[in-house]
Protein: Histidine triad nucleotide-binding protein
Organism: Candidatus Abawacabacteria bacterium RBG_16_42_10
Amino acid sequence: MDCIFCKIIKKEIPADIVYEDDQILAFKDRAPSAPVHILFVPKKHIQSLVHADKGDESMLGHLLLSIAETAKKLGIDERGFRVVTNNGKDGGQIVHHLHFHLLGGKKLGW
Ligand code: 5GP
Ligand code: ZN
């Protein structure tokens, strides 16, 4: 499968990894939109949020809590941050492997 995020997960292409465990990987976005711009991805290939199912429930909960934990570690939890997942064409999804953007470190416009 020709999926850029699966290649990052398999360490076939490099990325600036921020967090990793058996279920998820977090790495810096290569074209950051904010001082903090980290992508959180499941290690399992899931195309987008609507392709996730009941079996992914605990992994998704774990992923969201890991985002909050990372925001705390980076010290952006008090000022605030944004979590975004783009779904499909109208949502602006470019990479078709489910990912959550953690954005912060500045006052974000919409
Ligand atoms: P989407 O629009 O699909 O939600 O966003 C995909 C994001 O992945 C973009 O912000 C883009 O900069 C980032 N991205 C795409 N390819 C790579 C890559 O090879 N490495 C890294 N670190 N980020 C990537
Ligand atoms: Zn993938």
Q: What stands out?
A: Strands lie at 17-20, 24-28, 36-42, 81-84, 100-104. The pocket of guanosine-5'-monophosphate (ligand 1) is lined by residues 4, 15, 27-31, 39, 86, 92-95 (CB under 6 Å). The chain has two helices and five strands.
